[in-house]
Specification:
alpha/beta; about 15% strand
Length: about 550
């Protein structure tokens, strides 16, 4: 018994907690605060000093934060789109578990009351919201847990989760409802594989001479600064979230001076005929399929990095405001983004892809007892945010969480690295992706698999990239490494049956189409939108709402 107790006390996790308790408690600082900073669409590589991408833009404030704490330089989103990424981070659970598949569906119910979120009820009605809520079974969010631990939680800026968060008393400064404009035709018909633009061209949303950029983010940061000036008593958690560097791409000379133009290479594009069909669909949907000059591509790319510089300045304003209050040393500071930005790589903009520019996110943290100047290359995920903050607050992370606390990796007594076999996964099921995509990141490898539920996508082969040798992910080596492909596929399957997940989401897409759009189309248009290859007999199987009749000799699809 004594040996077991001694081993438990000397474990890295226990020592990490003891160090945090000693640092905060013995110093007589009282309860600590949490400053949760968040941006949108920031490619995590811009804050990874080991990546050439970090040389493209100067970001002094966030790099100073990294040097004063621990920087997780290989961090990934659970799903590279705003609502599914944020909802999974706020619940600590996989996208398919919480049913927040896309920007048209956030968390349907308020955990504390089991009542539908107001936006969900407005767009989808009580019955559907209740159904999604029962299936998701979200019993608490990160905010609920932090309040339960005694924190005064205050939300400023973009939340985009649902769960009734915008209706919380006193949360009038939070924005984005987690359901956007409700049912989306471009999302629920994505698997029809209609190859046409669904977005404006990148150049049409790019300006490097806009002298009034992102006023809504500046106003929100003003509110965050005012909050810090008012709050002198400890025990608060401030979530301060801006929308940039989310497209449209808008900047000006003030921010372009932070951009190192000579360090921005023209992206290498694979020949259109050699692109993976999932990539070619995404490129066409994003309206990047036409020809662009090097100058045009460079304009988009440098404008995005200018927006990153502006984001850094705004985050710096909040950090300096915290210093001015005298509470900096007793405050844990976290900075993350929800996903990255393709920024013309792979003939794409926006996010939505499993490639590094879209999937990589920054995660860095500073505060009492956290190692300074540490760079951790262990693979981590936004799913790890929830258990980390709960453990830092002195609580026990709920057992339903899918992530792990990062505290052992950033404590001054903890190891710099952990289990070499650690891996992270991701999934995507929304617009500009015609079928589900899934990722496993392990050691130097990235494995990308696709949903093969419908016949049109059964030929979509998985991809394998060696990121140490091929950081731009241009050389698919899956054919040369069949055993590794099988092993990584098994790692993905150990988390969930990804083909079953793809099928479930496609059924949900079809249900939304049928309930909210089908009446607008003639039967002929419906058949054109939803067709299927032939199958062969004896029973029928429901695929996304279509009943495929299998026959022994004759083959057809009932439409």
């Amino acid at each position: 018994y004594q040996r077991r107790v001694r081993e438990m006390v000397m474990s890295p996790r226990c020592l990490s907690g003891l160090v945090l308790w000693f640092t905060v408690g013995v110093a007589g600082l009282g309860p600590n605060n949490i400053l949760f900073l968040m941006s949108d669409s920031m490619d995590g590589r811009v804050l990874d000093p080991t990546s050439p991408v970090s040389h493209r833009v100067d970001m002094p404030n966030l790099r100073k934060l990294a040097s004063s704490g621990t920087n997780f330089i290989r961090s990934y989103a659970e799903s590279p789109q705003c609502v599914p990424s944020r909802a999974s981070m706020f619940t600590g659970r996989y996208t398919h578990e919480i049913k927040a598949w896309s920007n048209q569906i956030g968390l349907a119910l308020v955990p504390s009351t089991s009542q539908p979120d107001a936006a969900c009820r407005k767009f989808y009605g009580m019955q559907l919201c209740n159904q999604w809520g029962r299936e998701a079974n979200v019993t608490s969010t990160l905010l609920d847990s932090m309040r339960h631990l005694g924190y005064d939680v205050n939300l400023y800026g973009k939340v985009d989760v649902g769960a009734g968060i915008l209706a919380d008393p006193g949360e009038g400064n939070s924005t984005c409802n987690g359901f956007h404009s409700g049912p989306s035709i471009s999302i629920c018909t994505r698997s029809a594989d209609i190859r046409r633009p669904t977005k404006p061209t990148p150049l049409s949303i790019t300006s490097d001479t806009n002298n009034n950029v992102h006023p809504e983010d500046w106003r929100m940061v003003d509110n965050c600064v005012d909050f810090l000036a008012r709050r002198q008593s400890p025990g608060w958690m401030l979530y301060c979230s801006v929308n940039i560097p989310h497209p449209a791409f808008q900047t000006n000379a003030t921010w372009l001076k932070y951009v190192n133009e000579s360090a921005i290479p023209a992206p290498r594009w694979v020949d259109e005929k050699k692109m993976h069909p999932a990539d070619s669909y995404m490129s066409q949907s994003k309206n990047v399929w036409s020809q662009y000059t090097d100058h045009e591509v460079h304009k988009v790319r440098q404008t995005y990095y200018g927006m990153c510089a502006e984001t850094d300045y705004l985050m710096g304003r909040v950090l300096k405001a915290l210093e001015a209050t005298g509470q900096y040393e007793q405050t844990f500071i976290l900075f993350v983004s929800d996903h990255g930005e393709m920024n013309m790589a792979h003939r794409q903009v926006w996010k939505n892809s499993m490639y590094e520019p879209s999937e990589r996110v920054p995660i860095m943290m500073a505060g009492p007892g956290i190692a300074k100047g540490r760079e951790v290359s262990s693979l981590v995920s936004l799913l790890d945010v929830y258990p980390t903050l709960v453990e830092i607050a002195g609580g026990h992370p709920p057992t339903f969480l899918r992530g792990q606390s990062l505290l052992p990796l950033m404590s001054v007594t903890g190891p710099v690295e952990d289990d070499d076999d650690r891996f992270v996964t991701a999934q995507y099921h929304s617009n500009m992706g015609n079928t589900g995509s899934f990722m496993v990141r392990w050691k130097q490898w990235k494995y990308i698999a696709f949903g093969n539920t419908l016949p049109a996508f059964q030929s979509y082969k998985p991809q394998l990239f060696n990121l140490d040798q091929d950081p731009d992910e241009l050389d698919d080596v899956s054919n040369q490494n069949p055993d590794l492909v099988a092993a990584l596929d098994q790692k993905l399957m150990s988390r969930y049956d990804y083909q079953a997940v793809d099928s479930e989401c496609k059924k949900n897409d079809y249900m939304i189409y049928k309930n909210f759009f089908a009446h607008e189309f003639s039967q002929k248009q419906l058949c054109l939108l939803y067709t299927s290859d032939a199958a062969d007999e004896e029973d029928s199987v429901d695929l996304g709402g279509r009943r495929i009749i299998k026959k022994k000799k004759k083959k057809h699809t009932e439409r």
